[in-house]
Design brief:
single chain; alpha+beta; transport
Length: about 950
Amino acid sequence: MPKTRFRWLAFALVAAIVVAGALIWVRPWSSSGPVVSAEDRTIVVKDGPNRDQDTQLDTTLFLPERTPAPAVLLAHGFGGSKASVVSDARELAGRGFVVLTWSARGFGRSSGQIGLNARDYEVEDAKQLVTWLANRPEVQLDAPGDPRVGVTGGSYGGAISLLLAGNDPRVDALAPVITYNDLSQALIPNFATTDALPGTPSAGAGSPDGVFKRSWAGILFAAGMGGAGFADPSADAAEAGTIQRDQNAPAPNPIDAAPQSSPSRGAPPGPCGRFTPEICAAYTEMATTGRASQQTVDLLKSLSPAAVTSRITKPTMLVQGEVDTLFPLDQADANARQITQAGGKVKVVWYSGGHDGGKPGPALRTEMADWFDFYLRGQGKDPGTGFEYAVQGALRAQGAPSIRTVTAPTYPGLGADQTSRQAVPLRGQPQVVINPPGGNPSSVSSMPGLGAVIGGSSRTAGRLAIDLPGQVARFTSDTMTNQLLISGSSTIRLHVDAVPGVPTPPDGVVLFAKLYDVGSDGTRTLPSSLVSPIRVSSLPADVTVALPGIVRPIESQHRIEVAIASTDQAYALPSQPAAFTVGLADPSLQVPVVPGARSANPVPMFAVVGIGVVIGLCVIAAVVLALRRRRADDLDPELAGVPLVIEDLSKSYPGGLRAVDSLSFRVEQGQVLGLLGPNGAGKTTTLRMLMGLIRPTDGTIRVFGHRVYSGAPVLSRIGSFVEGSGFLPHLSGEANLRLYWAATGRPDEQAHFAEAIEIAGLGAAIRRRVRTYSQGMRQRLAIAQAMLGLPDLLVLDEPTNGLDPPQIHQMREVLKRYAATGRTVLVSSHLLAEVEQACTHVVVMHRGKLVAAGEVADIAAVGGEATFRVDQPAEAATVLNGLPGVTDVEIEGTQVHANLDGTPRADALTALVQAGVSVEQAGPRRRLEDAFLELVGDGK
């Protein structure tokens, strides 16, 4: 096998494994909180059109501390089992709900065949589970046989939530996640139409005769095949490790089999695994022909929530992912329209995840639990029928994108209102597009699950898209002058025609419409890796195309590009070569814009008091931060010449940890100040706040009178060695310094390379490769890097770490030479002797607090013990004994030691001179180390 082909096959297999894992919908929620008991039980259900078959469902019932309570049915994703949602169940039970999880038929340890949520099988299973709950004494009832019950789940589990609600009026509320409306449109989509589109933000065309989503369908089929006939050992292990059996569980109901039984699943029934013959035949048809017969389309529609949404009138919270090439936003849009039309109350949430981007975070999961709190228990604030969507910003330093949430009062288009759209003019002449023989080579937009592999960021995954020359027509906008926030599915009118002399393929024209964000540097990003496949049956044709539903801020100086490609490796393509022209039937792109209140997402919190309190706290925090930012760049003219002033500085962390507590000190120009304290004293936290790396909880930091905050301009006057430095080992020291300085964007003439290198004492070694440096040389190179630009304030955190005594001596000289230039140095160190020799002043911290500050000699003299070197020791001892308060006078050779006990050393010195004693030297008796130990004790 050729190596290139092998690499692509290996990559595809890895992606398939990752995505299959993503479909399991595992959420690693914390298990801390209220005590939750759990019992495993095998429930026998009757299924089939005549209810003449038995199926054994492996279930677990989670019980809260207080019962009776409302119940929640929690379904797993495709390819998973009840073990996939253990953490979800425990969190909901911790909120006070009785939670029932089960392995759907054909998965985990449940028997039966996979019918893809068929009415007579999976839906009937769920209905009988509702009946089972109605017979449990722990479950609150609305009427005999009618439990107070909600239902939720992700993907496959989201679909059963909708299907159960449409078939069983006993369901009181539901919250389906990243699921579909019409399986035929999800797997065989066609986003081209000649009709008017609905007025909602992300409506798809929903046209028939679409393009088969080959890659995703294959992975789904594999997920139903992989465990066929065998129990999933990893699932069993997960259950064994997380489920604690309730030894006092009540006796089983009549429809129960014995608890803890393990259903026999038998041998794999041929090439279709656990799928029913109807599902197997439908997939085989699509996989081998690339098309779906009407019989297959009808089957898929019958298995879809669209078949029952006209009967769903219970409160529904629809949660859909913005990074999802399997079930994009148009699927939730259709569910919202249909349930609203049926009279149901609907709330819509788009979050920055999905099958390609990850699971809902803690804040969104709490919001879902609050939905059930209100509608099942009547507790909390009415969650309303609003619309929320997440906006991904630029990547942070850690690689994760920043997120903000936009909240609108309603989902546009569900009532009389329509979605606002902004016209964006496009330029581009009609272009010839070819379909190569066999559809190969193909353009690349996505590989299923790839977003989950690289972090779920649409900004990252979208840059991997490839359009092949000759297979794409491009239409571009002018450069944006202001940010445009796309919030849903944009639309475009295309004119597609045949090329003279080239016959139209019998399967029609297949195209893939994409919307790119093109940066000022020409970088093209395909948001969320999404495309809109279309099929045009006859030519010429003018069609409206619903482009992918996305949430994307198009920044100022960026452009929008609409690309129409003839191939995409994720879909089944026509094999016959063809050529056709694609042009604009209307020269403008209609972009959906949904205004709303914008706020930064809160730090995830597991708040037992509910999302209302969390939102309130976040609003208060946002107001406080906004006020702080407004004042952040203020200047105190009186401190313009002072390198550093810290006033009442504090930093607290969740859990009550107070790393820095009301710290205040001042550093004057020309000082070398040592920051001392035992481990955990708060030294590094203080330096990180000084550098703007973390935000203080309270207090202020001023550098040359300017208040410090993240990104403050005054930080350019600080050189730092706080986080540790990383150098490229194959480059010289000088090349590393120049590379670092170039990254700052400042002119070379401001770097002062020669001065920094000379002060650091690197000499000729600066031209050697860094891999040849000793630890001491690396430390000096790091100091030189911090000195670039000759900053007015040099901040160093443990610069002597890992150095031997000669290297420490050299480092001490480096600091002294830098201070000799008239600048200021702040150094944190645990080597007290070095601080005593290198620093002029010292600040001592303990448990986040200031315990001493001043000149090194004064701190060392705390307690009053002094030493005088004199020519007449006996006479000196007599004089000192005669001074008020002086005690413990001792003679040691030419030295006289005394405890002055508050008497100024200068007064004692004056008395000795007046008595005719010649004093050669006077100073504190103790070392800095003695004073330090007295101030902080053992450091605990």
